[in-house]
Amino acid sequence: METGEEFGPWLARQLKLAGKTQAELAEELGLTRAAVSAWITGRSTPRPTVMADIATALGTDLGTVHTRTTDTQAGLPVTWYHRPGYPDGGRELGNAAAFAFDADVQVLARETCQNSLDERLTENGRPVRVRYTLHELTGEHLDAFRDAILWNDLFPHYSAVSELAGNQKVGRVVDAGVRDMYEKGRLVLLRVDDYNASGLTGDDYADGKFAAVVRRQLESLKSGRSAGGSYGLGKATLWATSALGLVLINSTLSVPHEGRTERRVIGRLELPWREVDGRPYAGPAWFGRPDPDSPGAEVARSWWADEETVARLHLSRDNDEPGTSFLIVGAHDVASLEASTSDLDDENVEEEGDEDTRDIRRMHKRLVQALGRDFWAAMTSGGGRLPLLEVSVRALRNDGEVVVGDTKVDPSVEQPSRTRALRAYYEGTTVDRLTEAGQVAARNVPLKLPLSGGAAGGTLGTHQAVLLVTEAAGDNDKPINQVHSLRGNRMTVRKATVPRLPIGTNPFQAVLLAGEAAGEAAPFAKEAEEFLRAAEPPEHDRWGQTEELTLRWSPSAYRRIEGLTREVNNVVRELVARPRRSNREGGEALRKALTVKNRPKAKVPTGPVIPVLHGLDATIGEAGEWRITAEVSIPRGDEIVPMVPVALLDVRSGGRPKLDWAELEAVEGCEVEDGTLRFNPGVRRATFRAATDVTSHPVRTALTRLVLELRAGKGE
């Protein structure tokens, strides 16, 4: 038998709900008040024969007293609490946070799936599972649901809002939602369920995830450093997607509250200021059990519902795995009007020119597209790594009818090229340069992190982001020639087309892994994660200048991101450029038909040429060693002099101490032989990596400056 809360706390709450004191219960049971007090404090428990008498006194059944998995139904019933109007006469004609987003199921998918990713339980290593269910109710099913949410109690408030609809936006949206329900006899529910997530933990009013979502605005209490949200605005998309401003919630907690974890239920309504029966109301309302501790027991708090109640509210969950179910009542998708219906099957469109923003087939399609576009990386596995996320979407009608079956979002279908690239990186099968179809090229791209605290011009260190480039998979892989940038939670943050590509470039797709997405071992990964998160606006769709970036770093900190973008574009252009064709390539007939005057070739210098150091990135490794990546520029010539890289410490006077190399390896355009760089014939640029030997450092690395020289011969 399922056992819930400890008896003492459970009994104390039931007495409050029933409006009874300990003395009154003792009198009904024919016992002393001390005996009841001992039960509540946990010093003793009642005998089995007394349990039946307690059930009778509380107006419930014996099973409820034994299991204590729900509250009794006696006492204060579940109801709506509407916040009274402000005594100073102030009015709020809607929740301003909702205006940060459009009424768009694709925006909803991005924000809610990001929240689920942020709340994933990481201890078990399993992905968070998210399911979107579109559910159209008509006829008796609609009537039963309206009874469950006490629609008759809500209707006067909706009527009052409709009367003011011509004066402000929120009222017009709500009025249209109510009219659609009555005129077309239908209501669309959109439920978002996540599993293996933390759930809405914490007290109803004190600091915690429950209060942050249900009670407050502009508060974000995310679980991890790599979390996507930081503004506390994302939850507003739930209410923005509801034409009725109504969301119901059922949460299974990862950490018990009041000794319970399952079926913590609450509802929140967002309406503008209104006046009903001569009494003003401020805006929001809550659906729950009246709190006996609130003045007049008016304020509604969450309650532990039974299975029958959550079923009537369409909030039943599949199992007892922690997570939360959000039910958006009256879901609509205004942004779908901008989307073309040409790609929908004829059978899915009722008639030509259909502009129904509540078409569940269309909403299903747009949800799948958005989830595949924004979360393909979080759903990708490989090289022994499990995905962070699994997502599915389905559409139902009136409980039994399946309109569109459960569709699992497959990243290899939605983003074939990028999924292939990320898997290659996980499996260690990337290459330095693209030479064959299907290959994935990987390069490190530096992000120079600024010093925090407003210090201008300083550099904390260089984070090496990872750039992956591969050919586009075909006509289904569009738009082409884009870079998708992401960080620790692997949600696509930035989508940008690479400019100034060479003419005739083969179609490609690219991925930039920054912050903790580049791997926890990447230099300054944590610092880059924090920096990039601060550079995201509430929509989390780009990196750039933000107020937080200015306050925590400096007004010019965003230029570090511009520098990263330039480096990314340069490397992409280098990787996708086609090799020059020989003058003799092409059809013989075409060459004879064309007369082209060739310019005289520039004279190639004869004799040996000396390579010069062109670029250098240096960081301090975990062991205190200098780690460098150097780029060498090579003049045109018929002989390239071998060079020896030499690491020196910069000093104010005297000779510079020489450091030994612990590692020296060629990356591109050269080879390493006995500590000497030998360059490939005809190359104009080469790259190598190296790390110093810590035992050769005369002082601590953090107190030194590094000088790198290229010397001809043996480096003497």
Write structural notes for this entry.
With 716 residues, the protein is an alpha+beta fold. 26% of the residues lie in helices and 27% in strands. It has 19 helices and 28 strands. Strands 1, 2, 3, 4, 5, 6, 7, 8, 9, 10, 11 and 12 form a twelve-stranded mixed beta sheet that branches. β13 and β14 form a beta hairpin. α8 crosses α9. It is elongated.
Features:
single chain; 716 residues; alpha+beta; 19 helices; 27% strand
Query: Care to count the β-strands?
Result: 28
User: Could you name the ranges where pLDDT drops below 50 across 5 or more consecutive residues?
Assistant: 223-232, 340-353, 582-600
Number of helices: 19
Sheet having the most strands:
12 strands, mixed
Name the overall outline. elongated
Secondary-structure blueprint:
Elements: H1 7-18, H2 22-29, H3 33-41, H4 48-58, H5 62-67, E1 79-84, H6 105-118, E2 128-138, H7 139-148, H8 151-163, H9 169-184, E3 186-195, H10 209-214, H11 236-240, E4 242-252, E5 264-270, E6 274-276, E7 279-290, E8 300-301, E9 303-304, H12 307-312, E10 323-331, H13 360-375, E11 389-397, E12 401-408, H14 411-414, H15 416-427, E13 440-450, E14 459-471, E15 482-486, E16 492-497, E17 508-513, H16 525-534, H17 547-552, H18 558-576, H19 588-593, E18 608-609, E19 612-620, E20 626-633, E21 639-640, E22 643-649, E23 658-659, E24 661-668, E25 670-673, E26 676-679, E27 685-692, E28 706-712
Parallel strand pairs: 2-11, 15-17, 18-21
Antiparallel strand pairs: 1-7, 2-3, 3-10, 4-5, 4-10, 5-7, 5-9, 6-7, 7-8, 11-12, 13-14, 14-17, 15-16, 19-20, 20-27, 22-23, 22-28, 24-27, 25-26
Helix pairs in contact: 1-3, 2-3, 6-13, 8-9
